[in-house]
């Protein structure tokens, strides 16, 4: 395990901080990827619901700006580095790639539902990991992000209700 890059007086042991920084960087990558995939959907969606979905996807993408920043800053406050370049994100994201030929409005919604749900599930798992490592602050940060992901997942799923979920 690589050591934390910078010393800090935060009273968590070095090995715990290293685990937390790795955990946070995985989520930084996934949230950044989720934002980029949602923006991709915003740019490329087609069909009779284009305008409303175009606006929704833009709102969803923007809703990730603050959580992305908070996750990155938590990693650095623990003495680590935030890995947020496009190449780092591509290597570390656990989300599947957005379907390359998917442009129809409701099919795009389905693809986004799958990705937002995966991010929400992984975030809840990360809350448990942070709690088990004794870091209530990281768990609290992730809890807020989890609520945001679930709320926006609901916005997406509402477009599909009637049997497609």
Describe this structure in words.
The chain has 165 residues and is mainly α. It is built from 6 helices and no strands. It is elongated and about 55 Å long. The model has no long low-confidence stretch (mean pLDDT 94).
Q: What's the structural blueprint in terms of helices and strands?
A:
Layout: H1 14-44, H2 50-63, H3 65-77, H4 86-92, H5 105-132, H6 136-157
Helix pairs in contact: 1-2, 1-3, 1-4, 1-5, 3-6, 5-6
The string of secondary-structure elements, in order, is: HHHHHH
Number of domains: 1
Overall shape: elongated
Strand content: under 5%
Q: Percentage of helical residues?
A: 55-70%
- According to CATH, the homologous superfamily is Ferritin, core subunit, four-helix bundle
Report the count of strand segments.
0
Uncertain regions: pLDDT < 50 for 5+ in a row?
none
Rounded to an integer, what's the Rg over CA atoms?
Answer: 17 Å
User: What's the CATH topology name?
Assistant: Ferritin
Structural class: mainly alpha
The CATH class is Mainly Alpha
- CATH architecture classification: Up-down Bundle
Cα distance spanning the termini? 40 Å
The major beta sheet can be summarized as:
none
> How many helices in DSSP terms?
6
What's the rounded overall pLDDT mean? 94
